[in-house]
Write a structure and sequence with these properties.
The structure holds two protein chains of two kinds.
Chain A: H1 2-40, H2 44-47, H3 60-69, H4 74-106, H5 112-124, H6 131-140, H7 147-155, H8 158-171, H9 174-182, H10 187-198, H11 200-216, H12 219-224, H13 233-241, H14 250-285
Helix pairs in contact in A: 1-14, 3-14, 4-7, 4-8, 4-11, 5-8, 8-11, 9-10, 11-14, 13-14
Chain B: H1 19-56, E1 58-62, E2 69-73, H2 77-83, H3 86-119, H4 125-133, H5 140-151, H6 159-162, H7 173-198, H8 203-210, H9 215-226, H10 228-243, H11 247-252, H12 265-273, H13 278-308
Helix pairs in contact in B: 1-13, 2-13, 3-7, 3-10, 4-7, 5-7, 10-13, 12-13
The chains are: A mainly alpha, B mainly alpha.
Chain lengths: ~290, ~300
């Protein structure tokens, strides 16, 4: 009779230990963001001197207004740029990667293996290692400091091709394509009407991966852009933050700006989380 | 699958009724699918790498001290400078040290959290999953700015700690950055490992459970070996990320004077190119890209070789 009793006690012990670890980690991961939120709601004088993780006078609205009006609304422009760079590049990049990965998975053609291996090699050469070479190349054609100099390189997503190949193999049955062929549907039409639908959850995953990668890429805009009206929001906040010693009022703006800059992605994560769950593992399991 | 097998003569299966027209139609489709990505990949991946290699073989030469500079072929002269550049190699050593400590800590924590989520010991799984993943939404630059304030003696919510321990000092700033990177990426790595745990059929555990294996035993002997591919994948990405460290140190330069302009290899590339010495910076870039490629490739091969045994 004693064996089950021990088992239950053990399990309570491990349950408690597990919950303690989870609790401590939650504090670690969320306190900085909480601090950012609280800090954004404080007036300039209260940022220092009041309890850093609790509210003083709630000034979030006024702070946001000040941020948006600062220097003719340059912050809004940065947010809009970021959306164009990341949203546009991820949307186009996902489509192109999906098409290429799909072709590698579903058709035999000469150079198929070579193509896949070169693309896979591309996965191991990270975007930031290419920033300077890209800069040299764009300056050759006098294309630096333009929207396209950041946008176009961001579209290329070799990891997306790799994932798309795996997903296409796993989720698009050959019989279905064959049936579409018998119905007289062309290959390209089958891709857009049949295969894309089957691959959709996977495509959202590729999109999210690429979105975050472009959103995070810092070196490329840093070397390419000198006109601040072209900056993505990360580079803009960085440039403000490095001027804080000279212009102290920027500090409050940096904090509010940081909060606003992460809000869209956090919200997107909340809505798209089921895709992360379903798609993300497939790439690793293979 | 077999119908598309057009190029291998003789291997054409009997189901391929009208091989000729279908062959050409497929070629067109394949071109349609592959060319857009392929063209951009060549233009913005392969050409820049090639161009960087070419640039790295040139040097600037001046006629007299103030004469106009012109580019002449310099052979491997830039690479000689790269290999004799002390600060560059100490920055490589620094990120390797960073990686050797930070990557196992981060992935260990990610694995632990994924196993806990999967063990059934935890209530409120979806909340925790999301809470741990939220920092991944914070770009490296913003995370570094945020933690920079959290470390600072005046602003920090932990002033009792930050007044006594200077996280931004020369001794600690590397680990202060390691904490930023860990904070951002644990949840992301956890999610990759966790989704691969979810894809393990539960019958596999049942046998172990009937044999009387506890949670720890199952995790150690069944789950971890099965999610090894996910761990390998996350390790490769972490190695790449570590060698490419740039946003965090660049931001921390405004918080701490201990972070020099050659603190990480990528910072060296950036500051060399803003001197500007593009030929040398190109050589740095080539060496760094090769090193990253070699390291992650070796790791992949090494772990695959072990897995096959």
């Amino acid at each position: 009779m004693s064996a089950p009793a021990i088992k239950v006690r053990e399990s309570i012990l491990s349950r408690t230990a597990a919950m303690i670890i989870m609790g401590v980690c939650t504090v670690y991961f969320l306190v900085p963001i909480w601090w950012l939120f609280v800090g954004s709601s404080k007036s300039r004088e209260q940022i220092t001197g009041t309890n850093p993780i609790w509210f003083a006078d709630f000034n979030l609205g006024a702070n946001v207004r000040e941020l948006l009006e600062y220097r003719d609304g340059v912050f809004l422009r940065w947010m809009f740029n970021s959306l164009l760079y990341t949203g546009g590049a991820a949307l186009l990049g996902t489509l192109l990667a999906a098409m290429c990965g799909y072709a590698i998975a579903k058709y035999r053609f000469p150079g198929r293996e070579t193509l896949f291996n070169v693309v896979l090699g591309g996965v191991l050469v990270p975007a930031s290692a290419l920033a300077l070479p890209l800069f040299l190349l764009f300056s050759k054609v006098e294309g630096t400091n333009t929207f396209w100099s950041v946008f176009l390189p961001s579209v290329v997503n070799p990891f997306g091709v790799y994932l798309a190949r795996i997903y296409a193999t796993a989720s698009v049955p050959e019989e279905l394509l064959e049936a579409a062929r018998l119905d007289g549907s062309g290959e390209v039409r089958s891709f857009f009407t049949v295969s894309v639908r089957l691959m959709f959850p996977a495509l959202v995953t590729i999109f999210l991966f690429q979105f975050v990668a472009v959103w995070n890429n810092f070196l490329l805009p840093l070397v390419m852009l000198s006109d601040e009206r072209l900056f993505p929001v990360t580079l803009g906040l960085y440039s403000w933050n490095s001027q804080v010693t000279g212009i102290p009022e920027l500090r409050g703006l940096v904090i509010v700006g940081a909060l606003l800059s992460i809000t869209p992605l956090v919200v997107a994560f909340l809505f798209l989380q089921r895709y992360w769950r379903s798609g993300i593992g497939a790439g690793a399991v293979k | 699958m077999t119908v598309t097998e057009t190029r291998t003569a003789g291997a054409a299966p009997p189901t391929a009724g009208r091989p000729r027209p279908r062959r050409s139609r497929h070629t067109k489709a394949v071109l349609f699918f592959v060319v857009p990505f392929g063209a951009l990949f060549v233009l913005f991946y392969l050409v820049p790498i090639g161009y960087a290699i070419v640039q790295s073989l040139y040097k600037l030469e001046r006629t007299g001290t103030f004469g106009p500079a012109r580019e002449v072929f310099g052979g491997l002269v830039q690479y000689e400078r790269v290999f004799s550049d002390g600060p560059f190699w100490s920055s490589v050593g620094r990120v390797l040290l960073f990686g050797v400590v930070q990557v196992p800590v981060m992935l260990g924590l990610a694995l632990l959290l994924a196993l806990l989520l999967d063990s059934g010991l935890v209530r409120g799984r979806s909340f925790f999953r999301l809470a741990f993943f939220v920092p991944y939404a914070v770009p490296g630059v913003v995370a570094a700015i945020m933690w920079g304030y959290l470390y600072s003696p005046n602003l920090s919510p932990f002033t009792a700690l930050t007044r006594n321990v200077d996280f931004l000092s020369a001794d600690l700033v590397l680990w202060a950055m390691a904490n930023v990177v860990t904070w951002v990426y644990v949840g992301y790595n956890m999610l990759i490992i966790y989704s691969s745990l979810l894809s393990i059929p539960t019958e596999i555990y049942e046998a172990a459970r009937i044999d009387g294996a506890g949670q720890f035993r199952i995790a150690w002997s069944v789950k971890i070996p099965l999610v090894m591919p996910a761990i390998v994948l996350t390790t490769v990405f972490s190695i790449i990320g570590t060698l490419q460290l740039i946003a965090e140190p660049q931001v921390f330069r405004s918080f701490s004077s201990a972070v020099s302009s050659t603190y990480t290899p990528n910072l060296t590339v950036y500051s060399t190119s803003s001197i500007p010495n593009f030929n040398l910076a190109a050589a740095f870039s080539v060496v760094l890209a090769l090193a990253t490629f070699a390291l992650s490739f070796t790791f992949l091969k090494f772990t695959q070789g072990r897995g096959e045994r």
